[in-house]
C-alpha cells in the first residue's frame, strides 16, 4: 500500500465530506474499486477545489455559507456554539461572519467549537477538541465558557460514523440532533437560531414537530453543496421562544 492511498483512505473514514485532496493521484489502478470511486468523485468535485482555493478545511464550509447567504443568520458580535466542529470549516465560517477574530471593524463575536475528535485551532474561536458533546462534562464546560450569558446561534453538523445501515445511522444521528436541541433550549437567547444536520428517516418529521414547539419557524434546507447521493438535510429553526420558568 503506498503512502497516498494510506493517508486518503484514513482521512475518508474520519470525514467523508471533509477530506481535501492535496494532490491528484496519478495511478488509480491498484486501488480498491470503492477508493477509485471516491478519489474520482473528489477530483471532479468543484467544492473540493474551491475549499482549497479559499483555505477552508473542508467543502462543508459552502453548506453553511449558502445557508447564511439565503437566511442571513450571522452578523458581527453574535455568540455561536458549533457542535461537531472538526476539522473546523464551519468554525472558520462562523468566526469570520461574527468577527470573532476581531479582524474587521465593529462588534466582536464569540465562537465555541466542540468535537469528540481533536482538531487544530481556528483563530478567534475557542476550541474544545477531544470532547463528546453529549456528556454532562462537555455541556458544563460550554456553559462555564458562556459565563451566564446566552448564545445567538447553535450549530450541529454532528454525525456518527456511518455504518451503511440506513435506519441505524438515522437513529444515531437523531440522538445527536436531540442532544443539540436539548442543549440549545438551555443556553439560547430568545429569538435565537438552531441549525441541525440530520439524515433522512422515520424520526425526521417528529423532530421537525418538536422544533416547532420551541421555535417560531422551522425550515428544511438542502444546500447545493450537499452531495446528490447524501440523505442529509439541515433543519433551520429560528425565533427561539424561550422556556417558561414558572
Ligand atoms: C461532518 S463532520 C463536521 C464537519 C464540520 N462542521 C466542518 O465543517 O469542518 C461531523 C463531526 O461530528 C463529530 N461528532 C460526532 N459525534 C459527536 C459527539 N458525540 N460529540 C462531538 N462531536 C461529535 C465527528 O467527530 C465529526 O467531526
Second-tier CATH architecture? 3-Layer(aba) Sandwich
Number of strands: 7
Work out the strand percent.
15-25%
**How do the SSEs run, as a string of H and E?**
HHHHEHEEHEHEHEE
The CATH fourth-level homologous superfamily: Vaccinia Virus protein VP39
Largest sheet: 7 strands, mixed
Write down the overall geometry: globular
Using the coordinates shown, work out and report the CATH topology: Rossmann fold
Q: Can you give the helix content as a percent range?
A: 25-40%
How many domain modules?
1
Task: Explain what the structure shows.
- The protein is an alpha/beta fold and 246 residues long.
- The chain has a single domain (58-240), classed as 3-Layer(aba) Sandwich (Rossmann fold), CATH 3.40.50.150.
- The chain is built from eight helices and seven strands.
- It has helices spanning 3-14, 33-44, 46-53, 61-71, 89-98, 136-146, 166-187, 204-214; strands at 79-83, 110-114, 125-128, 151-156, 188-199, 215-221, 232-240.
- A seven-stranded mixed sheet has the order 3-2-1-4-5-7-6, sandwiched between helices.
- Helix 7 (166-187) runs parallel beside helix 8 (204-214).
- The chain is globular, with a radius of gyration of 18 Å.
- The site of S-adenosylmethionine has 26 residues, from helix 5.
- One of its GO terms (biological process) is mitochondrial large ribosomal subunit assembly.
- Pfam families: FtsJ.
- Keywords: Methyltransferase, Mitochondrion, rRNA processing, S-adenosyl-L-methionine, Transferase, Transit peptide.
Amino acid at each position: 500500500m503506498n503512502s497516498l492511498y494510506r493517508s486518503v483512505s484514513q482521512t475518508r473514514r474520519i470525514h467523508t465530506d471533509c477530506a481535501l485532496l492535496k494532490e491528484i493521484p496519478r495511478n488509480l489502478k491498484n486501488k480498491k474499486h470503492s477508493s477509485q470511486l471516491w478519489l474520482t468523485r473528489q477530483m471532479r468535485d468543484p467544492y473540493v477545489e474551491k475549499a482549497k482555493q479559499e483555505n477552508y478545511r473542508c467543502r462543508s464550509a459552502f453548506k453553511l455559507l449558502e445557508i447564511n447567504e439565503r437566511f442571513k443568520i450571522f452578523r458581527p458580535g453574535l455568540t455561536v456554539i458549533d457542535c461537531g466542529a472538526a476539522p473546523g470549516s464551519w468554525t472558520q465560517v462562523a468566526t469570520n461572519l461574527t468577527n470573532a477574530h476581531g479582524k474587521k471593524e465593529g462588534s466582536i463575536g464569540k465562537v465555541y467549537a466542540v468535537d469528540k475528535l481533536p482538531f487544530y485551532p481556528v483563530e478567534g474561536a475557542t476550541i474544545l477538541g477531544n470532547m463528546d458533546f453529549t456528556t454532562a462534562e462537555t455541556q458544563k464546560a460550554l456553559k462555564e465558557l458562556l459565563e451566564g450569558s446566552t448564545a445567538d446561534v447553535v450549530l450541529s453538523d454532528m454525525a456518527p460514523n456511518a455504518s451503511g445501515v440506513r435506519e441505524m445511522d438515522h437513529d444515531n444521528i437523531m440522538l445527536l440532533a436531540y442532544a443539540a436541541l436539548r442543549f440549545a433550549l438551555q443556553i439560547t437567547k430568545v429569538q435565537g437560531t438552531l441549525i441541525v444536520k440530520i439524515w433522512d428517516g422515520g424520526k425526521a418529521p417528529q423532530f421537525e414537530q418538536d422544533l416547532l414547539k420551541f421555535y417560531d419557524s422551522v425550515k428544511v434546507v438542502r444546500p447545493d453543496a450537499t452531495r446528490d447521493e447524501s440523505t442529509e438535510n439541515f433543519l433551520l429553526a429560528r425565533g427561539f421562544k424561550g422556556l417558561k420558568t414558572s
